[in-house]
Amino acid sequence: DRQAFTGTVATVSSENLESVPVSSVTQALQGNAAGVVVTSSSGTPGAAQDIRIRGLSSVNASTSPLFVIDGVPVSNPEAGGATSSLGALSSLSNSDIASITILKDAASTAPYGARGSNGVVVITTKQGRQGATTYSATMQYGVNSRAVEGEGAMNASDYNDFYYEAAGNYLDILGYPSDAATVDALLGSSGWNGETDTNWGDVVRNDNAVQQEFSLSARGGNDVTNFYASGSVYGQEGQLVGSSLDRITGSLDVSHRMDDRVRIQNSFSGSFVE
């Protein structure tokens, strides 16, 4: 009963999640819930996220909140390496989530005991509902690029000119002749052929990293049996060449009412993440 509840909570609806083109559920929380700070362990697509609810609560112990997915606690779903490990929640599609509720204070996290001392993130996935079968198809496409263009680096010709100018200035300070012949005698050949000019930043960066997702779902049922089925394909190129995330997910939820007192519900989900 929300009217009788005295704890502090924040709720993120499915509409907010589906409108944010991100690879992980935890990334979608950033900016959608007050007091929640989400930072990535690296710029790699799907990398594990560091989540803080109302700041740090411990210096030495873990400060990650407890995740509960459809009533099942998930221990440290974002654990992994410091640079490239994928977070476990990156295998969950945003389109399959009905809502996310964040429990922040002691009163709201009390049912989870010590495990909820850093806050609790309750994730509820979509389920079947009574009514005519409805179908939903979505497509998202975008391009990620650098926020700041260029780093002011010299090209090969500029560096060659600067190299010789600096040598000439150094000879002037020492009181030696600084003509071209003397500089050449001091430095020798630079080894540059006047043509080769490789921008190594362009070699390792992907300035137009494509991100796209396609999803299809169906939901319906009657007064006895309800169902929800979905599938999605997600792909994201990283801004470093060679980094990417490809994900295929599928889920099926079926509930059947045996009688007025007994209802059986089965939920299946699977994902392939690379």
Topology:
Blueprint: E1 9-13, H1 14-18, H2 25-29, E2 36-40, E3 49-53, E4 66-69, E5 72-74, E6 97-103, H3 106-109, E7 120-125, E8 131-144, H4 156-174, H5 180-187, H6 200-204, E9 209-221, E10 225-237, E11 244-257, E12 263-273
Parallel strand pairs: 4-7
Antiparallel strand pairs: 1-6, 2-3, 4-5, 6-7, 8-9, 9-10, 10-11, 11-12
Helix pairs in contact: 4-5
What tags apply to this protein structure?
36% strand, single chain, 5-stranded antiparallel sheet, alpha+beta
Give a written overview of the molecule.
The chain has two domains: 9-145 and 207-273, no CATH class; 156-198, no CATH class. Strands 1-6-7-4-5 form a five-stranded mixed sheet. The longest helix is centred in the middle third of the chain and has 19 residues, at 156-174. The chain has six helices and twelve strands. By secondary structure, the chain is α+β, with helices and mostly antiparallel strands. Helix 4 crosses helix 5.
Give a brief rundown of this model.
The protein has 274 residues and is α+β, with helices and mostly antiparallel strands. The protein contains six helices and twelve strands.
Overall residue-averaged pLDDT value: 80
Query: Which structural class do you get from the secondary structure elements?
Result: alpha+beta
Terminal Cα span: 42 Å
Q: What is the overall shape?
A: elongated
Number of helices: 6
Number of discrete domains? 2
Proportion of residues in extended strands: 35-45%
Helices and strands, in order, run as EHHEEEEEHEEHHHEEEE
Integer-rounded radius of gyration: 28 Å
Largest sheet: 5 strands, mixed
Give the low-pLDDT segments: 79-84
Q: Main sheet: which strands, in order across?
A: 1-6-7-4-5
Percentage of residues assigned to helices: 10-25%
- DSSP summary, beta strand count: 12
